[in-house]
Every structure is written in C-alpha cells, then in structure tokens.
Amino acid sequence: MNRAWTYIAIAIVLAGLVAIGLFAGRFVVYLSMRVLILSIFALGYNLLLGRTGLLSFGHAAFYAGGAYGLGLLSIHVTTNPLLGIIAGVALACIMALIIGFFCVRHTEIYFAMLTLAFGMMVFSLIWNLRDVTGGDDGLVGIARAPISLGIATIPISKTSHYYFFVLFCFLLTVVLVYLIRRSPFGLILSGIRENDRRVEFAGLSVKNYRLAAFAISGSFAGLAGALGALLESYTNPFSAHWSHSAEPILVSLIGGIQTFAGPIVGSVIFIGLREVIERFTQNWMLWFGLILLAIIMGLRGGVVGGVAQLFGRERGEASASGGAR
Amino acid sequence: MNAPLLEIRKLSKAFGRVITANNIDLSLEEGVLTSIIGPNGAGKSTLINMLSGSLPVDSGQILFQGVDITRLPIYHRVRMGLCRSFQVVNVFPDLTVFDNVQIPVLAVHRRARRLFRPVMREIDVRKEVGRVLERVGLAAEAQTVASALSHGDQRLLEVGIALAARPRLLFLDEPTAGMNPVERAKILQNIKGLSAEGKTTFVIVEHDMDVVFSLSERVIVLHHGEVIGDGTTQEIQNNPRVREVYLGEEVAA
C-alpha cells in the first residue's frame, strides 16, 4: 500500500520535472535548475549531517572547488562540460579528503569549528590568488559547450536543454545517495551517528568512515558547484563563503534531516519562498527566519518528517531507514 | 608452546597521584572463565580500559596472542579478537536490534565498505546476525528499536553486539548490573553456555559475589591497582589478604 503510493508519488514528481523542462517559461526553468542544484548539494550534505551526525560549516569550499575546477579547465584547457564536471568533482573530492583528514579527528563543536576555519581559508585563498582565480571578479565567461560523447553531441547552451542535463545529474545523485543510504556503508554511518565508540568496538575505524562520508558529501557539493558555474556561466569567491555553507544545513533542516526526501523538499521551499518573499520586501532574511523558526519548532523532523507522521507512518521507518526503504 | 591468550607485563597507570595500576603482571589462558573483582576504586575499569584500548598506558606492555598491542587503536584490537562490553548500556538506540548486531557482523565479514549494494542482500551476514540473536535470546525482538527494549534485554543486546565481533577474548564489564533475578539467571546461563562452546574466552568484571563464585574458574582480586589474589574460587575465599580488604569490607558494610 505504502509502496504503491511511493511509486505513484515518484512518477508524478518525475512527470512534473519533465513537464517543467518542456513547457515552462525560462524563468521557471531557471529557478527549477537552482532548486535541483541545491538539492544535489543538500542530498550529499545530508549524508554527513543526517546520517553520520556531523555538522560541517565548510561545505561551500567544496562547492567552490567544483565551480572553480570546472571554470579553470573550461577557460584554460577544454570547454567539454563533462570533463569540466569530472575535474570539478575530483578537485572537490581531493579538497574534502585533505580538509577532512584534519577535521574527522574531532567531533561535535570542534569538528564544526574546524570545518568553518578551513572553509574561511579556502575563501580567502580564492579571494587573494588573483592570477589563478580572478580574485573578487571571479571566473567570467564559462562556456556551455555541447557535450560530445564521441558518436553524438548534445547541445546544452539553451536553458531548456541545459535543464535536462541538470535533471539527469539530479536523478543520478538521487539514485546514488539512495543506494548509499541502504548499503552496508550507510548502516555503519548510522551507527556512527548513534554511538561512535561502539562502532570502534565493532572493529571499524570511525575516523576512516567519517572521512569517507566527508569526501562523498564533498564530492556531491563539487558536482553542485560545477553545475552552478555552468548555469550562471560564472563563479565568484562568495560561492566558498561560509554563509553559503549554511544553505545545505538550512535546507536539510527544513525538509527533515532524518528523511531521504527532506533535502529536496527543503530546497524547493528555500528557493521558492525566497523568490516570493523578495517580491514584497528587501529583508527577506527576516521573514525567512520566522518561517524557519516555525518549521523547526512546530514540525519535529522537518516538513517531510512532519507530513510522514501526520499520515501515521511508524516512526521507525521514517527515522531509522530514511522513510524510503 | 603457545603464548598465553593475553599477557600483561608491568602495566602501570596513574591519574595525577592516584595510582590505579601498579606494575600489574598477569596472563590469561585460553578457555578459562576468569573474573576480576575488587572494591570500588580498585582499578578494575582502568585495567579493562587499558586492555581494550580506550585508555593509553603509562608504562608496561600488553601482548595479545604474543603480539604487542600496547599502542594499537581500539578497532585494530577488536579485529584481532579482543573485545568488550560496557557497564552502562551502550547500544545504537535508534537502530533496530537486528541492525545493532549487523554492524559488527558486517565488520567481521569485511562487507562494511560496500557502498552501492543493498545491505538486505548480504545473505551470509543476515544469517549470522540471526544466529547471534538466537544465541542471546533476542530473535523475537529483531525488528524492535533498541531503545524500546527492557533494560535487561538491552544488556543482552549489549553482549550480543560484543559477541558478534567474534572475539577470542571478551571482557564483560558488570554484565548483570541493574538486572532483575530472572534476567540475571538468563544471562549467566548464556555466558556459561557460550564459554563452554570454547570459541570465546570470557573475562568478567563483577561486583556481585554470587555471580563471581557461581561462574568463574579463576578469580583475580585487585586492590589499589595491585593484584592481591589470584586463584580458584576456593583459594580466593580462603585467602587472608583478600578476606581482609575485600570480603571483610563487605561484612563490615
């Protein structure tokens, strides 16, 4: 029964996403892409926050790693977007491995502060290395060249074309994160969140598993960053700013960190609300803060968690296995 | 011919001026159910913590099956076969009983790193989890969330998680703490049975004298970080020094 409803819901969402690409106006398509990219960022991030129980304030650094990796390759070497994305994700992954190596030795507040410190270092590096990164001007003119796959080439320069490419990357992320969450590795990450000392006494190196989770979430941040840079044809140092690191945290919290779909729903609400509120007032942060307050205090477990409880699904399913087993 | 299962050489540890382990020399033989007893503050927990890797030693050496493990990290010792359970309940509260046991079993089977394969499809692992739950008597509760178990069942689960790591040597830190008599009898029966199987050597840290004397083949008495008695239950009960510092205290109290 529940299963059938899940499939129906997935089918409706998929149809909706395709319909947006085919029929919606340019602005809606553009906003949808921003939602999808933020979802990729947050889905990966929530493997760390909701699953492993680690709060990072430095993931914008990896987002920027993806953006600058792609941007630099596109400007200096090749404009092939696939190679650019691979370069961006690889750069983000390497950065996450190096930064994570130092951070995972600590937990809780110390971990959070270390990630914040490293994030700020990456930001000021990008800001100051003018010759490489363009400093505060950022990288301008990142081309959206066609994707060449040997036999066929797919043009993505038009917004509606690029939308389907972003959608593809989003679906890939959904599938990968879903698989990771229900894999043995995913179970170990839950164990680390629940009781890290006990995982150590199960014969597993908690540090290595934390580092792996950190690098995986960093890589997804890199993918989001690369896609974002292609979307705007531009990237700037503020993509690495710590305030940008707050986005996946807020989005996950709004949607529900213990749910699979939470980060996606959170992204829709975050970007949608921002667009709406900004039409009425300049200080959208104030209103958004109030709404966030209401969601966090009123809906335990975020929007998705709250709705799931409303429909009387058992708590164990929603929390332990991510509601999507 | 064989090295003893665990050998401790001149192990010392002090917290400031409080000496909790003073040149302890001990060796534990395979298959001998041993108890470590002593009054509060005798250094029992410190000893267990040093042996299992939670606490660095000040000086001395720990050899497990002839290999120096003094400075190895916890998970490394567990993989070699040295594990422990905890005095306070120390399970994964929001996971099911099944998943609680599955984590160490995945580690033993070296499947914990699989990223994209559903954990449900690890048939061997699932079978072994079932066997462990059967052994500790929690098979009926497999799908219950651990925090919803009764205290006694959580203690059983605690032992189950420790056993699932397939230890050669297992320290049980006050396994019957806070249990009612029925649960206590159940878990003691379990420990006896598992010990008789011979795969795991049990070392029990206990407060409760009844438990100690009904179970153990060998008793080690600690006092102020020193071994003051070591022998069969009979020998310990007749040891004047032990009677003085330990049993005497109990009579006085």
Overview of this protein structure:
Chain A has 325 residues and is an all-alpha fold. Chain A contains 14 helices and 4 strands. In chain A, helix 2 (26-51) packs parallel to helix 8 (184-200) and helix 8 (184-200) crosses helix 9. Chain A is globular. Residues 314-325 of chain A have low confidence and may be disordered. With 253 residues, chain B is an alpha/beta fold. Helices cover 39% and strands 23% of the residues of chain B. Chain B contains 9 helices and 10 strands. Chain B has helices spanning 44-52, 74-80, 97-108, 123-136, 151-164, 181-197, 209-215, 233-238, 240-252, and strands at residues 6-15, 18-28, 34-37, 59-64, 67-68, 82-84, 169-173, 201-205, 218-223, 226-231. A 6-stranded mixed beta sheet of chain B has the order 6-7-8-3-9-10, sandwiched between helices. A 4-stranded antiparallel beta sheet of chain B has the order 2-1-4-5, covered by helices on one side. In chain B, helix 6 (181-197) links the parallel strand 7 and strand 8. The longest helix of chain B has 17 residues, at 181-197. Chain B starts with 5 loop residues before the first strand and ends with a helix. Classes of the chains: A mainly alpha (325), B alpha/beta (253). The interface between A and B is medium-sized, with 28 and 39 residues.
